[in-house]
Design brief:
alpha/beta, globular, 11 helices, 7-stranded mixed β-sheet, 32% helix, 28% strand, 283 residues
Length: 283
């Protein structure tokens, strides 16, 4: 297994449009483990497209419970199960993740019970362990360590940036957050910072297409970061590479990679990647 970071879904927000990218999900291959970070719509297909067999699934981290990060958690595990998953899967998520999982099991009870009886599959509920976490170190196995930092994503209280260290590499994932100075120390010296990003000039496009005008704009500005904010965090933290992800807007042809690079340029001069679905970055 080659250590790599694969962006499976790079769009901010839950809506999908023809030809556009999927909501947020990431696959991190590191220290011999395959780690799924967030499970927005499209994660199962995205994982398969990397060449991964879904029955290999065993470790998932959820940053927060907005639908564009968790909508396909249950369906991903269920689909892996129908593909032949027969070992335990551990899901780390904030408070409320257990309710998401048990609610999914209840909604698919007929299908699950039928497949157990008819196809001889193992009990799905018994295969999955949900670990609800807070700030601090949340996972350690050999040289692989995962730490969490609560970030500023109102009105969501339990939203966490994640720092994953292993194989002499450190990657930090901002999750969804307004500009948050503590991320500087959290990401200090990381090899890669994956940070959410918006374009100021793209907000009108989002509001126009999605509706709910003033309220949506108010939420976006209060709860998310502009590309320039992400660039400043990366510079202050001295990271090796900045990857812009959870892009807003991500599916408007009026905005290209040049727009993102121009927004970052005054604040960041290091290696820069603008996220797109399926992009793999060697570590």
């Amino acid at each position: 297994m080659t250590d790599r970071l694969t962006l499976l879904g790079t769009k901010g927000g839950p809506a999908i449009r023809p030809g556009g990218p999927n909501p947020t999900s990431i696959l991190l291959d590191l220290s011999g483990r395959r780690i799924v970070i967030d499970c927005g719509l499209g994660v199962a297909r995205g994982l398969v497209e990397t060449g991964m067999s879904l029955k290999e699934l065993d470790l998932v981290f959820i940053t927060h419970l907005h639908s564009d990060h968790v909508l396909e958690l249950g369906p991903l595990i269920h689909t892996a199960w129908t593909t032949g998953l027969d070992h335990s899967v551990t899901v780390y998520g904030p408070k409320g993740t257990l309710n998401v999982w048990t609610g999914f099991l209840a909604s698919l009870a007929y299908d699950i019970e039928t497949r157990i009886a008819d196809e001889g599959r193992p009990d799905l509920a018994s295969l999955v362990e949900i670990v609800e976490y807070g700030p601090g170190e949340i996972f350690r196995e050999g040289d692989l360590v995962v730490e969490a930092l609560r970030v500023d994503h109102p009105p969501v209280t339990d939203c966490f940036a994640l720092k994953v260290s292993g194989a002499d590499k450190t990657l930090v994932f901002s999750a969804d957050t307004a500009p948050f100075p503590p991320l500087v120390d959290f990401a200090r010296g990381a090899d890669i910072l994956v940070h959410e990003a918006m374009l100021p000039e793209g907000l009108d496009s989002i509001v126009r297409r999605t509706g709910n005008g003033a309220r949506l704009r108010e939420h976006l500005v209060a709860s998310h970061s502009f590309a320039a904010d992400a660039a400043q965090i990366a510079t202050k933290a001295g990271v090796g590479m900045l990857v812009l992800n959870h892009l807003i807007p991500a599916d408007d042809p009026a905005f290209t990679e040049d727009d993102w690079r121009a927004a970052v340029a005054p604040h960041w001069t290091g290696p820069l990647i603008i996220g797109r679905d399926g992009l793999a970055i060697a570590l």
